[in-house]
């Protein structure tokens, strides 16, 4: 059974949904297990004519690793359909011509340009990197930032926590905040809920005809709705019932499969009314 926020529905009830941005971890899957009926639901969503893109703040895995994992657990998708905060961060590093010190996992590091050893490190790029969150690595990042007041702290995202099979786990946010506190710098935030991320993922699509499906009330739903999208919050992953986002989601559903039901029904009603 899904619930629809009255004010949100009133705003969007005349708009059919042309495209869906779909969160990965906690929404489509939790580690190596799909959420209930998610594999079949994705097929139904594609068959209904809605375009899809998979969007994630995951910074531990490269795009190739994400694609391999999703295919292995039964999802059908092309690697080009994945837009991650790593994708957005790579674009930012290249556009800004940065030569960063990376606090990233070895796998995620593969998506970024090689270090230019003929230049000083002029920035720090930080994501979810449990093996790098030790004193020596954080102290190196601290000193890179202190070396010059123009050196940037680039946070691929600053999530508080994420969902694993054994429960919630600490995200990179506290390490981002620690470097901000120690250096007096304000991080450039790349991933969800930053508008920079959603605008890159939409790639020119009309936000009002698109919906975001996710398990994070703030990063997924509030972030997407702030750029004019609709937002469907699922009760899987790191969903917390006592968190009330503002504005409220367009719809609150049990899982990704019910989110697909909601989209297909909404488009059916819109077509009937046309």
Automatic annotation (TrEMBL):
A GO CC annotation given for this chain: cytoplasm
InterPro entries associated with the record: HAD-like_sf, HAD-SF_hydro_IIA, HAD_sf, LHPP/HDHD2, STAS_dom
Residue stretches making up the STAS domain: 1-93
UniProt subcellular location: Cytoplasm; Nucleus
Domain of life: Eukaryota
Keyword Iron (UniProt): no
Keyword list, A-Z: Cytoplasm, Hydrolase, Magnesium, Metal-binding, Nucleus
Assigned protein family: Belongs to the HAD-like hydrolase superfamily.
Annotated NCBIfam families: HAD-SF-IIA, HAD-SF-IIA-hyp3
Role this protein plays: Phosphatase that hydrolyzes imidodiphosphate, 3-phosphohistidine and 6-phospholysine. Has broad substrate specificity and can also hydrolyze inorganic diphosphate, but with lower efficiency.
Protein name: Haloacid dehalogenase-like hydrolase domain-containing protein 2
